[in-house]
Amino acid sequence: MILASLYFSPTGTTRKVVRAFAEGFGGERIENDITLPAGRSKALMDGGADLFVFAGPVYGGRSFKLLTGTIRKLEGAGRPAVCIATYGGRHYDMALADLYEAATAAGFQVIACGAFIGEHSFSRNIQTGRPDEEDLAVARGFGQQVRGKFEAGSLAAMASEAIPQRSVDLDAIGMHRERLGHLTPNRPAPDENCLHCGACASVCPLGLIDVNDSDAIKPGCLKCNTCVKTCPVQSMQFRQEAFKEVAKNCEETFGKEERQPQVWFG
Ligand SMILES: Cc1cc2nc3c(=O)[nH]c(=O)nc-3n(C[C@H](O)[C@H](O)[C@H](O)COP(=O)(O)O)c2cc1C
To answer: Which domain holds residue 57?
Structure first.
């Protein structure tokens, strides 16, 4: 049995969940990691897969268009798919519905979906260290359950009404539209401790950082914080008040809330 995954995962939490799922499912694996520009320049590998996994982080309650746009270009031909959203402890809102919609538009049958917890991109103090060993055990178990359904011949497509979703409500955590607007131009910058090692440039999913000059950061930052979390000397940081305020607000409102992974089947 061949499992093909297609995922976007700047800070790597989604990648861990996808790999644990694939381990549980077993068989041959094909990975399409479209996080970095280099990954997106390659042709997608299908390999005649029996099962597809589409996975990515929740951004503002939605799935990232770069991921859903890529899913739409595939040829599902009625094959089964699993959708996984990884979120930083607030909520997944419409993200699974977005993945479902893209997968079904491409001709896949979504047979299961899952929402997993990942340390929040904005801060190490929100859902710290997730997915942890217990989360990954759930992801492996999820893969085993899907494998069991294949073997029992009991795969059933999920109807759109069965996809867990709720309307995006960022007001609940004080992130109303106006405040988010202030956040848009914010981007990180290195301070005088920068080693010019290029680590930040090599992990920016949008390729916005010049590898020879980490001060030259183009606009369009996603706020994925991968460069911030990767910098070996913590030189790369967001220093704008708007971003710091939102990150603090997230830490205070749901940073320590108890959240567990959830899975659903057709
Ligand atoms: C711009 C942005 C918006 C986000 N919005 C949400 C959100 O609406 N709800 C939530 O729970 N987490 C949110 N997160 C956190 C990520 O979904 C979470 O950290 C995820 O695990 C990151 O996945 P990755 O490690 O695969 O990049 C957001 C992160 C970023 C960068």
So the answer is: 2-168+256-265
192 with 148, same domain?
no
Q: What is the CA radius of gyration of the chain?
A: 19
**What backbone torsions phi and psi does residue 220 show, to the nearest 5 degrees?**
105, 10
The rounded Å distance from CA 87 to ligand 1 centre is 5
**What does the alpha-carbon distance between residue 57 and residue 76 come to, in Å, rounded to a whole number?**
22
What secondary structure, in 3-state letters, does 114-132 show? EEEECCCCCCCCCCCCCCC
Question: Which CATH number covers residue 219?
Answer: 3.30.70.20
Q: Are residues 132 and 230 in the same domain?
A: no
144 and 38 in a common domain: yes
The whole model's pTM is what? 0.97
Mutate to test the pocket of ligand 1, among 96, 121, 132, 182 (most ligand atoms within 8 A of CB): 121
Nearest alpha carbon to residue 166 among 75, 93, 226, 257: 93
Q: Is ligand 1 within 6 A of the CB of residue 52?
A: no
Q: What is the pLDDT of residue 172?
A: 65
Residue 133 and residue 222 in one domain: no
Can you tell me whether residue 71 is helix, strand or coil? helix
How many separate domains does the chain show? 2
Q: Are residues 214 and 159 in the same domain?
A: no
pLDDT (mean) for 45-55 = 95
Is the model's pLDDT at 168 over the cut of 80? yes
Q: Which atom of ligand 1 is nearest to the CA of 15?
A: 26
CATH code for the domain of 106: 3.40.50.360
76 CA → ligand 1 middle, Å: 27
Question: Using one digit for the tens of pLDDT, what is the confidence trace for 178-212?
Answer: 777 788 889 999 999 999 999 999 999 999 999 88
